[in-house]
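Let's do one together. I've listed all components of the complex below, 229 residues spread over two lines.
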Amino acid sequence: GDSVTQMEGPVTLSEEAFLTINCTYTATGYPSLFWYVQYPGEGLQLLLKATKADDKGSNKGFEATYRKETTSFHLEKGSVQVSDSAVYFCALHTGGFKTIFGAGTRLFVKA
Amino acid sequence: GAVVSQHPSWVICKSGTSVKIECRSLDFQATTMFWYRQFPKQSLMLMATSNEGSKATYEQGVEKDKFLINHASLTLSTLTVTSAHPEDSSFYICSVSSSGSGSGDEQFFGPGTRLTVL
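Okay, and this is what the predicted structure of the assembly comes out as:
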């Protein structure tokens, strides 16, 4: 079945460091890919998405490129801030109604 | 995007009592809503898909008699945890899909309800 695999956390970085959170997927068909973010004590919110191969989603300095050949959708940010501390979920949606989430990666950014 | 609210945001109850959680889509008519459960430091587990005017579709392993879902209108779905026990303590999150079929649709999530059963 469809699945999403994320790198295990927590990831701890200093402010202004470069961030990469790896995400790979398995799916039949042509899924859309998403990154959701959950700040402490809050629900999930969409960070960025890509709907087809080679698309790049971007938002708030975060980027991820839909790589069909490597079935990956890695999240990157060039310079993280303390306010980026949160849990990040990679997800896929193959149509219909279900979204498949990865396990989540907790990010801590130190000042 | 759609704005989704949940009520209450936090509830503590005694073991054996029932708790109702509301999920409202404030600016979007949602024929389908989803209920998730999130354990501490873990991912979201889809519990059920709630369809307006019909019975919910439960995921494997989720007790439908324990987690009662009602989707009586296009803007409201409720999850009732019946005869709650401490192991039901969790963070419950609802979401709505931006439309019914397209693969590019995102989900809009409520802020979650933290249930603690004593």
